[in-house]
Amino acid sequence: MNLRKLFSVAGMLLITAVLLTAIVLAAQEGEKCGSNLPESLPDGCTVVIVGKDASVDGSVMTTHTCDCGMCDWTWRHVLAADHKLGTMRKIYHINQFRTRPPEKGLKWDVYKENYTEVEIPQVLHTYAYHHGMFGYMNDQQLAIGESTIGTRDKMENRTPSATFDITMLTLLAMERCKTAREAIKLMGSLAEKHGYGFTDTGEMLAVADPNEVWIFEIMPVGPLWTPESEKPGAIWCAQRVPDDHVSLCPNESRIGEIDLKNSDYFMASPNVISYAIEHGYYDPKSGKPFNWKKAYCPSEYSASSSRGTRVRLWCFFDLVAPSHKFSPDTPNMELPFSVKPDKKLSVQDVMKITRNKFQGTPFDPIRGLQGGPFKNPNYLPRPFKLDGKTYNTARIIGVNRAEYVTVTQCRTWLPNPIGGIVWLAFGAQDTSCFMPLYAGITEIPESFKIGDHWVFNKDSARWAFDYVDFHTQVAYSYAIKDVRKAQEKWEGGAAARTPTIDKVALEFYQKNPAQGIEFLTDYCINNANSVVNFWWELGNQILVKYNHLWIYDTEKRKMNRMKYPEWWLRELVKYDELEPQPQKKKK
Questions:
Q1: Is the pTM value of this prediction over 0.85?
Q2: For the segment 514-524, what is each residue's pLDDT rounded down to a tens digit?
Q3: How far is CA 583 from the centre of its chain?
Q4: Residue 387 DSSP class
Q5: Helix (H, G, I), strand (E, B), or coil: what is residue 267?
Q6: How many whole angstroms separate alpha carbon 409 and alpha carbon 210?
């Protein structure tokens, strides 16, 4: 039954009383920004952002490491469509975290069950686009990456009065918008008018087109909001990343002081400052300038003080701009919005960043005992408790619970269907492979559309990558070398081929656009199918090669001992109090 139908007048009064009680309790206990507690971090996602003058080839790039661990990973392609004047577009609640058993219908087959009873006027033409949990790129080269940032407890709105969630907003942006600015204004205005939240809290989107990229942050305005209030049902702010800069969103609000007079770099809802004043989050008499993140999602943690759970931002800046010598002791709220990288980044550099596990830093997860004898960085990916105490471990960029990872490229020098690319890697990025999906293609592989965490399925692309990942974990330091060779061949090969594919597609496109699109569609599907087939075989190869923790040479049909590091053997002797074999007496 639709939740809206449950809200009779009596029911609303009862719920209002409960909500007011909850608000009072929250105020008594003190407010917390939902994503800022190191001991109880949400799954979250990481987004890398690269301006066009910060990339090697002039691409605007965004990423999305979709770090959930149990969410729906399936993808769809939505075709462009024409609509009659006066038709309406229905709005649905789409829970980004929900997944369903395949026999009951995959998420994107049944999401229309959650109709909000709200409709908005349909536009005459909607663009084609690729989407997974969110809309990622349309045929106009509009691209998006997402990261949950949380907000103050009292600002959350879990009631059905919040029509829009972040997934629905991104899908409408894909359908209707050509540029990043258009998308931000559309999503902001819809959320203001119809309310934002329901299943979502504070969210950040990296919104890009071939010319620029923005960080867009949106938050609910509390559970008592109704459309009849005539107040905005959301609060949002957007800041443009300078063209020669890069930035990162690691589940934290990134926008600080704002200058709304500078419309080339800032946009915001009309209540962006007034709401903070009204609710005591900002005092204009303080003499301090208004700061978005300090008002709506404050945090005092640094990489060091969080004991590693808030290290992604510092590590990224230290990685791309080491000349700045940022300190891990600097509170994340004080780190810059963006930086100019010491060297421009290529698409493969960005892919590598999504796999980063803080190698060589004080937060390296393989240091000491944590990585075990085979230097596995995926052990203890979350905080753990022991003897009533909580211990944090580093929350790395390349976390091992990703549903999939995207790297989007928007390129000005090519027609939109050819210029845009979504590079998609299913599963944990360290053992997966990025595959290109051009913006203009009209189909995606069938294996991308199916799959579920709880049901093994050889027809699902994702399971091929999980198959390799599972076998790699056993003897990680050995097996990851085999995976790297495969990535170099298939992922590196696709990246190297891109200029040639672009050229051929452009030649076809200039003669006949449909032929250019058909060429790209065939290329993307054939490449993806080849990669998926190879990854199934790679999983078999790793299983055989490192079976029983030996090394089986299939060519020479010999088995060799797998070597354990000396430091680990010493610790084993010490911990287990092992005694050496008695030495034979010399005769």
A1: yes
A2: 999 999 999 99
A3: 58
A4: T
A5: strand
A6: 8
